[in-house]
Specification:
By secondary structure, the protein is α+β, with helices and mostly antiparallel strands. It has six helices and twelve strands. An eight-stranded antiparallel beta barrel has the order 1-2-3-4-5-6-7-8.
Length: 362
């Protein structure tokens, strides 16, 4: 038996040296393997010599990393100090293995194992104390291990691992070396085929359908007006231009009523604010110098608020966009010594500014 194991070990080592550095890992598929085991019976009370045996495995590879395998092994060991007394052990186990780098030539792997062991021992073995107490019945066995898997070809592999096992009823710990040669029946991951060179495409015959000076092959904005200023992509050049509207409403002496003649001007301001919805404004009220400062301040506020309410009630401008403030007689624009000057000072003003985008024309 030992000579057979030595031959298998030597053959496997030779295949490892001949294996490629990388390979196309099998994606998934069934696998089968055959090989041998060597078990060290670690418990001195068992009285069983280390022994080689046979192993057969059938499994399924779910991914290049994960493999689930059902394996059976058999060995016929000698009993220390007892001539012609044998200890036969048959084991069936389910192994879950994880290949860490399946695309490598040689990849390490880890495993967990759970199974069952059946014993067939000569009466002479059972009569040797304390073996009678150690092996009363067949029992479950649990294990874990580490190993190396050599990918000899894309489908052919060899595995060598070492395992620690525990026999649960007899509470004996042993060590097992496993060496197998196997084959995975599955499809390999294929490298993407190299893209075929594309045939040269004939350059288009260029024109300028919209007459903007940019050939059709580079024109990202076809249909611009002939003669319009465009950028390198054939699109209109857009600038931001400030726009402003000013409102001025005059009032009679000591009055805060908006006269109907100013409604058209107020409507223009309302329409401007609707066109530019991000705008708002402050409506300013003013008076001439007649009367006390306190009275004029109140009067100017009433005038500003009156214009504000016309914008809200008559022309539906949102109230939150309008505010009013009265400055009384503090900010005259004309001489309060003349009637004409005082008329110009009895006013409400508002300025609304915005920015609009405009195409540059030739």
């Amino acid at each position: 038996m030992k000579s057979k194991m030595n031959k298998l070990t030597g053959a496997t080592a030779a295949l490892l040296l001949a294996a490629p550095a990388v390979h196309a890992a099998v994606e998934s598929g069934f696998e089968a393997n055959v090989g041998g085991v060597y078990q060290w019976f670690n418990d001195s009370n068992a009285g069983v010599d280390g022994q080689a045996g046979y192993r057969l495995g059938l499994g399924y590879q779910f991914t290049p990393n994960w493999v689930l395998e059902l394996a059976g092994s058999y060995l016929d060991a000698n009993v220390s100090g007892a001539k012609d007394v044998s200890f036969k052990q048959t084991t069936a186990a389910l192994d879950l293995m994880y290949n860490f780098m399946p695309e490598w030539r040689v990849t390490p792997y880890a495993l967990l194992s759970a199974g069952y062991a059946w014993y067939k021992v000569d009466d002479g073995y059972k009569n040797i104390e304390p073996n009678r107490e150690k092996f009363k019945n067949d029992e479950a066995v649990l294990g874990a291990g580490l190993g190396l898997k050599a990918n000899l070809t894309d489908n052919l592999f060899a595995r060598l691992d070492g395992r620690y096992v525990n026999y649960t009823d007899s509470n004996i710990d042993d060590y097992i070396a496993t060496l197998v040669l196997g084959y995975t029946f599955g499809e390999n991951a294929q490298a993407a085929p190299a893209a075929e060179p594309m045939a040269p495409v004939a350059a288009p015959v260029d024109g300028d359908d919209d007459g903007d000076g940019i050939p059709n092959s580079r024109d990202k904005c076809p249909g611009t007006s002939p003669g319009a200023k465009v950028d390198a992509d054939g699109c209109y050049i857009i600038i931001e231009k400030p726009v402003t509207i000013r409102l001025e409403v005059l009032f009679d002496f000591d009055k805060s009523v908006v006269k109907p003649e100013y409604y058209p001007e107020i409507k223009k301001v309302a329409e401007f604010m609707k066109q530019y919805p991000m705008t708002d404004t402050v409506i300013e009220g003013h008076t001439d110098s007649k009367g006390t400062n306190a009275y004029n301040l109140s009067l100017s506020q009433r005038r500003a608020e009156a214009v504000r309410m016309v914008l809200i009630n008559q022309f539906k401008v949102e109230p939150s966009r309008l505010s009013s403030v009265g400055y009384g007689e503090e900010r005259p624009v004309a001489d309060n010594k003349t009637e004409q000057g005082r008329q110009l000072n009895r006013r409400v003003i508002a300025v609304v500014s915005a920015t609009k985008k405009e195409k540059i024309k030739q």
